[in-house]
User: Fold this.
Amino acid sequence: SAATLRRFLLLRPWPDLELRVATFEMDPARSQRLLTEVAKYCAKHHIEPELVHFPTSAQQHLLSEAEAWQADAIVLGNSAKSLILRRMLGETALQVIREAEVPLFLSQ
Assistant:
């Protein structure tokens, strides 16, 4: 997911980008460390992201959160390591591809 975010920020598809970065279903201390690193990286690109952590899984929360935030796009990396399609995309990415109503930026 970090590599995907880096690629997205390097492309900078919107000049006045508002960014919300979320972690899902992980230890709060680990989430805080990751979000702190994201904030540092984003600052180098002159972006101040909104950082949030959800104790639930991305599959349960990602699309509803994107809709509530009125996201213009979803940036999504991959962490699954199973069958060929899931190896390429991941279970959460497959669900988002099927159900998202906004453009997706996917990367591995």
The first helix runs from residue 2 to 11. The beta strands are 20-24, 50-54, 74-76, 104-106.
